[in-house]
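Anyone able to model this chain together with zinc ion?
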Amino acid sequence: MNYSKVLTQISTPLFTAESIFRRLVQNLLVVFNYHEISDSPSEFCLDFNLNVRPDVFSKQLSWIKKYFNIISPNDLIKGDFKLPAALITFDDGFKGAFTSGGNILKSYDIPAVVFMNMGPVNGGMCLSGLINYLLKYDIKFKNQINTKYGNELKNDSFLRCAESDILEYFNTNGYDILPIAQEYHGKFALESDLKKSVDSGLYLGNHLYNHSNAVSLSDLELKNQYIKNENELVNYKNYLPIFSYPFGQPGKCYNKHTSNIIFSLGAKSIFTAMPFYNNGKRENLIHRTAMFDYINTESIFRSHCLMPAFMNQVLRRIDPYGY
Ligand SMILES: [Zn+2]
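re: yes, here you go
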């Protein structure tokens, strides 16, 4: 069940009044998170609700602009902004984020940051697409992973898979599935898209080289994944040393230890995929509200923005690093 959608639908009638909404968000920084912007999304994007159609994206930006001061990632790093503030972010480097998304952002003159995995841009693997393809279509692989890591977190088995599991699969089965898995995932941005991105007001951030789950890596592997990715990104003048965790869920995908490592490598801010509120003051660990295609009316948008209030209420006694 999509709990986020259900909660939004239940709460929509409560926040139909603009004035109430404005009061509730007046001291907040809300960081919105997108992945793909496309009229013909990939199967992977549909499976995981990662796509927003361009016309819906455009409407969502108009509502964000109406209620928030939209800031750039540089404003965030400097702590130089007025509340209520909003920042637009993307993860993974899907092609449509740069093309359709970039064009729409430019038309509104809105800045945004795309957290990149440079591995797939260089023609290499994106672990999330590959692992989820195999778990969906290769029963033998799925059984192997469930046997190896246990069944207690069956729905999260994609978080447990390591690059070594994939390499083991390739050693046994060859590389034939790679192009099919890439088609399942959807198109990545090319180097040329990244070069042009500065003209659309886009900044680039770090999301690890191959989209590994930070918690599944050794300290050295995590450092290597971060540095390898950064070494590619510094070639672009719009790169900023800010980082978002692949998968982004507390405990399973990040903890204080992984964050200490990332900060020690020079990251100025770290972004999660946890829809907690951010207090207005500058924080190092910044939580984000995922945006979906079903947020297609202004009242649904207002209600969805207030989702973190529910999360804070339910989880407020719990450590955001690892509940
Ligand atoms: Zn990601």
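The mean pLDDT is 89.
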